[in-house]
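INFO worker-7 received task bundle
INFO bundle size: 2
INFO processing item 0
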Amino acid sequence: MKRFVVVVDTQADFMRADGALSIAGAEMLIEPMRAWLAAFESGEVEGVLFTFDTHSAEAYSGSAEAEQFPLHCVRDTPGWANVLDPDALDPAIPVYRLEKGVFDMWAEPDRVIEAAATGGKIARDAFFDTLMTAGVRDVAVIGVAADYCVRWAIDGLVARGFAVQVPEGLSCGIARSIEQVIEADFAGKPVGLEEGI
């Protein structure tokens, strides 16, 4: 059975050493992430969703996130850009994008998922309901940060009935590694590490 892939916030402000909110070790993940994604064939994957942390300078200063982190991932700036190239995937694999303004990709009720090829949009929850209806039960998650946006992505997937695998070496955190997150936050739940590349 095919699985779905969620790539969390692989944006320059997080992934590059000179990014506005650079995560230690993230730059070293870029090439392994590219290779892992490029190795998929269309028969293996139902689709790949790239999430984008998206802020405006005006709104950010009054947000809860601003209490912890400096301004980052401002829409249409170099730091907002994805360091991974969706065009490097097998062209038969559908690619999607989701913009979010908070850590948790599930928290904002009005979020939509956009199909890269057509520009078509569908409500986030309806999109994942459609995956379930199609028989997709397994989701692989990679990206940053393991203890923030990746953690919340996994939590929402599990709550919606999916089993989640996190390939080793394709995620890193700010204060906790993905291994620590899985052990502490998802014990007894269908979340595990799998061999990377």
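INFO item 0 finished
INFO processing item 1
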Amino acid sequence: MTTKSLTVVTGINRISGPSSGSSILVNDLYRAMPDIHTTFLGRAPVDHAWKTAFDQLITLSTPKRHQGPAFDSYVDELTREVGALIEKIQPNAIHAQYLGFALSLAFSRTARGIPIIVIAHGPDVMAAERSPSEREVMHEVAAASAAIVAPTPALADRIDRLTRGRFTDRLTVIPWGIRLSDARARDQPPTASRPLSLVHAGRLDDNKSTITAVEALASTHQPHHLTVIGKGPLRQHLEQRALELGIRDRVHFHPFLPRAQLWACLPNFDAFVFTTRGLEAFGLVLIEAQAHGLPVAYSDLPGVKEILGSAGVPYIPGDPSSLAAALDDMGRDVHRREALAKAALSNARRYDIATSARQLRELTLRVTS
């Protein structure tokens, strides 16, 4: 494809730093994208090390407000601010992160013929499933788009249903990825049948369902240990539940770790436990675990098996006894665990962020032609 330099405006209506999986993904994505001049719209405070992926980072000044009585006036004010920036920058394309949140809505109302590619992340789809007003916003943004990107066919199908098939021809799947060159697998393969050292990382909320892992540990035949890394509203409840079950000495809680620190400690564990029970847009943490040679015990949600290939062990979502059985099987069979670790490394190689960046750039070239 002919090399062409493009000017793109994108942004996330949050603090400008690695505050979520989506912001980490976007940072990696534009760092890996060649021949793209990217202006990022975000919020203060700005992580100055994080912003180097973008040619320009502009902090939005319109005070942020959520859905409610003041939302319409907030969007009007944000639209005026974004419109002035679009007029000044004159980008070739707009990449609207999230299908239906306020910044995407502002983009859709100020594009004035500039093609918009909307990138769905998961929380936007969950919000539209819960709320008719969020669904209306999703429809408006989708109608203004030239293309809608989802990381899996399963998420694309949910968007298609929510928008009643009106934009099927605009949907395209671009799998997400990670910076594989930064990952390091453990040096030694498993050599003995023994209790497992397990790790779970993510936000501690209802959808991530970390409680499934905690309760599963109380039902295993082997005394596995679980390390929970992350923060969220259910942290105290999870600690209390581990105490009630008599396994507090086998469940260890650590606060959120920046990615470099998380990746440095992943090879110290035997396996990763993935417990989401509802919608999971992609689950980058699955690939992060696999890239470090960890087998994954995963809740069998739509699309997750396609991401993991044959390198994971499924269990029934939200079912502690099903997870407990999967963990015991993995702990007893060292040869299977070794095979799963090798398959994990092989599968992770499919998800290099450079591939995601190239596909998004090619899509951008097509919609701007």
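INFO item 1 finished
INFO post-check item 1: The chain has a mean pLDDT of 92.
INFO post-check item 1: The chain has 14 helices and 13 strands.
INFO worker-7 idle
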